[in-house]
Design goal:
By secondary structure, the protein is of the alpha/beta class. The protein is built from eight helices and 13 strands. It has two domains: about 180 residues, ATPase, nucleotide binding domain (Nucleotidyltransferase, domain 5, 2-Layer Sandwich); about 110 residues, no CATH class. Helix content is about 35%, strand content about 30%.
Length: about 325
């Protein structure tokens, strides 16, 4: 009797496993897996592009593989444009592997907010999606990929390489601004530009390469950081940021970094110049309402005060930034 009971349990477990596998396959390989969403907001309408993985490809894998397709459509609002684009896919759209959100020319902070609201109500994406900006349009991408999908595969690979510098969608709720990596296509070659695209409720502008590198150095949003402080490039990596509140209430910010093997050795003058650039950017962002490295939290920890120092209520405190290499 005991043996028969065990046999029934094993049979039930096998049937359950078979059902789960069948359900999983139905939920993935029989749908078009959307890997990235492209948003283009015009004055009177929206354009949405969907970078998707064809059902016959390895759609249940988060790795880049063959079978990448692209579909784009317009609509009077974001939801209609998204529905129109989804209707062009071979099968029903599945957004479980939608890891990227690309903002095309014309996009703003409002674009991000409207899309996030749609994600929360319709599950047509992920709030953990990584964001990037592009200098091309959905029409440009469609024309460039009419004969070959190699550029689409390259796009996913490039996005994967830029993950470290890409903020996530949910960060719009916690940060006063976001610096996005900027992707460009030149002669059918896709690349991440040294410049960045900064977005906030009041700003949408392209930053130059040096300002972009300073921002990423302070926030640790890259693998390497290249600066032209003299005749030769200075490339830093592995920044360690520390913040101390001094007795007079000012802040001492310190960055300890390594240089890459092919980088020139920095002089003290160059490190001091880089420290000044960091201080200037911290002050600029504070005046714009963004506490970039959490100075308010550091002051609250020291003082034990519930009245946190904040850029929306207080002037920028005195601070200095020292940069050293080890």
């Amino acid at each position: 009797m005991a043996s028969r009971g065990r046999t029934l349990k094993y049979l039930a477990a096998a049937l359950l496993a078979a059902f789960c596998l069948a359900f999983a396959r139905t939920d993935t390989t029989e749908k078009s897996m959307v890997r990235a969403i492209l948003l283009e907001q015009g004055e009177t309408d929206w354009t949405v592009g969907l970078l998707y993985q064809a059902p016959e490809a390895s759609a249940d894998s988060s790795e880049v593989s063959d079978g990448i397709g692209f579909a784009a459509a317009q609509g009077p609002n974001l939801e209609r444009a998204l529905n129109n684009a989804a209707s062009l896919l071979p099968l029903d759209a599945n957004f479980r592997l939608c890891d990227y959100l690309l903002l095309l020319p014309g996009s703003s902070w409002q674009t991000i907010s409207e899309y996030e609201s749609l994600v929360l109500t319709r599950q047509c994406g992920r709030t953990s999606a990584l964001m990037a900006a592009c200098d091309f349009t959905c029409e440009d991408l469609s024309e460039a990929t009419e004969e070959s999908g190699e550029l689409l595969t390259a796009l996913l690979q490039t996005l994967k390489q830029a993950q470290r510098s890409s903020p996530r969608l949910y960060e719009t709720r916690t940060d006063g601004g976001l610096l996005l990596p900027l992707l460009a296509v030149e002669e059918d070659v896709l690349s991440v530009q040294p410049e960045g695209w900064f977005l906030s409720q009041t700003e949408q502008t392209q930053w130059d390469a040096q300002k972009t590198a300073v921002y990423r150095l302070l926030t640790g949003r890259s693998e390497e950081f290249t600066f032209w402080m003299g005749e030769h490039p200075l490339t830093l990596r592995r920044p360690l940021l520390s913040v101390a509140v001094e007795g007079d209430g000012s802040f001492a910010v310190r960055l300890d970094c390594q240089t890459t093997s092919d980088s020139a050795d920095p002089t003290q003058e160059e490190l001091a110049q880089l420290g000044t650039l960091c201080t200037q950017l911290l002050q600029e962002r504070w005046q714009a309402g963004q506490d970039l490295i959490g100075l308010g939290a550091c002051a609250a920890l020291r003082d034990g005060s519930a009245a946190r120092l904040a850029p929306t209520k207080n002037a920028c405190p005195q601070l200095r930034t020292d940069v050293a290499v080890y």
